[in-house]
Amino acid sequence: MTQEEINNVADEPLIRHHRRHGQTEPFRDEGRFRTLRFWLNVIFMVAAAAGMIIWFTDYREFASYLLIGAMVPKFIEVTLRIMKL
Fold this sequence. Notes:
Elements: H1 3-11, H2 34-55, H3 60-82
């Protein structure tokens, strides 16, 4: 492969494709629960960040419960994503 061919390949935009039926349209997340999944992720990230901050302030038992509780919305989000709802 020549340098010119490598440059041409590098300049092409990367497009994610569906894996089903050989479709070539770009990947789009249009599930019914997209907004719900977004907010479940926000709850998870805020709770996990708060849990880590509290962990380093020596309230480790409370932080452990908070971190375990933060995983609940993440498990729900992952389940919705896997089920492609």
